Amino acid sequence: MKFLKQVGSDTLITVKVKTRQSSNMIRLENDELFIYVKDPPIKNKANRTIVKLMRKRFKNDVNLEYGQNSTTKVLRICNMSPSQLLELLR
User: Fold this and answer.
1) Does residue 82 sit in helix, strand or coil?
2) Global confidence as pTM
3) Domain ranges, residue 42
4) Which of 5, 14, 21, 77 lies 20 to 30 Å from 65 when distance is taken between CA atoms?
Protein backbone atom coordinates (compact mmCIF):
# COMPACT_ATOMS: atom_id res chain seq x y z
CA MET A 1 0.00 0.00 0.00
CA LYS A 2 1.46 3.30 -1.07
CA PHE A 3 0.04 5.27 1.88
CA LEU A 4 2.03 3.22 4.45
CA LYS A 5 5.74 3.45 5.29
CA GLN A 6 7.56 1.67 8.09
CA VAL A 7 10.05 3.76 10.10
CA GLY A 8 11.74 1.68 12.76
CA SER A 9 8.99 0.15 14.89
CA ASP A 10 6.48 2.82 13.83
CA THR A 11 4.39 3.29 10.70
CA LEU A 12 3.84 6.55 8.85
CA ILE A 13 0.45 6.73 7.22
CA THR A 14 -0.64 9.31 4.65
CA VAL A 15 -4.30 10.27 4.85
CA LYS A 16 -6.59 12.61 2.97
CA VAL A 17 -8.96 14.59 5.14
CA LYS A 18 -12.44 15.88 4.37
CA THR A 19 -13.78 18.31 6.98
CA ARG A 20 -17.32 19.51 7.74
CA GLN A 21 -18.84 16.10 7.01
CA SER A 22 -22.03 14.62 8.47
CA SER A 23 -20.13 12.01 10.53
CA ASN A 24 -16.62 11.04 11.65
CA MET A 25 -15.24 7.98 9.88
CA ILE A 26 -12.14 6.34 8.42
CA ARG A 27 -12.45 4.74 4.97
CA LEU A 28 -10.07 2.87 2.72
CA GLU A 29 -10.95 3.76 -0.89
CA ASN A 30 -9.01 2.90 -4.04
CA ASP A 31 -5.70 2.30 -2.22
CA GLU A 32 -6.00 5.61 -0.32
CA LEU A 33 -7.05 6.29 3.26
CA PHE A 34 -9.65 9.01 3.84
CA ILE A 35 -10.69 10.48 7.17
CA TYR A 36 -14.02 12.30 7.30
CA VAL A 37 -14.58 14.60 10.28
CA LYS A 38 -17.48 16.78 11.39
CA ASP A 39 -15.24 19.53 12.71
CA PRO A 40 -14.10 22.50 10.63
CA PRO A 41 -10.38 23.13 10.08
CA ILE A 42 -10.47 26.06 12.51
CA LYS A 43 -8.25 26.40 15.59
CA ASN A 44 -6.86 22.88 15.08
CA LYS A 45 -10.25 21.23 15.81
CA ALA A 46 -10.16 18.88 12.81
CA ASN A 47 -6.56 17.80 13.55
CA ARG A 48 -7.44 16.95 17.16
CA THR A 49 -10.44 14.93 15.99
CA ILE A 50 -8.31 13.06 13.43
CA VAL A 51 -5.73 12.05 16.04
CA LYS A 52 -8.50 11.04 18.47
CA LEU A 53 -10.23 8.88 15.82
CA MET A 54 -6.97 7.15 14.89
CA ARG A 55 -6.02 6.51 18.52
CA LYS A 56 -9.42 4.95 19.14
CA ARG A 57 -9.23 2.81 15.97
CA PHE A 58 -5.67 1.51 16.49
CA LYS A 59 -5.59 1.60 20.31
CA ASN A 60 -2.11 3.05 20.08
CA ASP A 61 -0.24 6.34 20.30
CA VAL A 62 -0.79 8.50 17.20
CA ASN A 63 0.99 11.76 16.34
CA LEU A 64 0.46 14.23 13.54
CA GLU A 65 3.84 14.47 11.77
CA TYR A 66 3.15 16.69 8.75
CA GLY A 67 0.27 18.57 7.17
CA GLN A 68 -1.17 20.59 10.02
CA ASN A 69 -2.61 23.08 7.49
CA SER A 70 -3.20 20.68 4.61
CA THR A 71 -5.89 18.23 3.56
CA THR A 72 -3.17 15.58 3.13
CA LYS A 73 -1.61 14.61 6.44
CA VAL A 74 1.07 12.19 7.63
CA LEU A 75 0.40 10.45 10.93
CA ARG A 76 2.83 8.33 12.96
CA ILE A 77 1.32 5.19 14.50
CA CYS A 78 3.74 4.13 17.23
CA ASN A 79 4.85 0.52 17.69
CA MET A 80 2.76 -0.89 14.86
CA SER A 81 3.84 -2.47 11.59
CA PRO A 82 2.09 -1.70 8.28
CA SER A 83 0.66 -5.22 8.15
CA GLN A 84 -0.86 -4.88 11.64
CA LEU A 85 -2.30 -1.51 10.66
CA LEU A 86 -3.87 -2.92 7.48
CA GLU A 87 -5.53 -5.71 9.44
CA LEU A 88 -7.19 -3.16 11.72
CA LEU A 89 -8.35 -1.05 8.76
CA ARG A 90 -10.20 -3.91 7.07
Assistant:
1) helix
2) 0.88
3) 4-81
4) 21
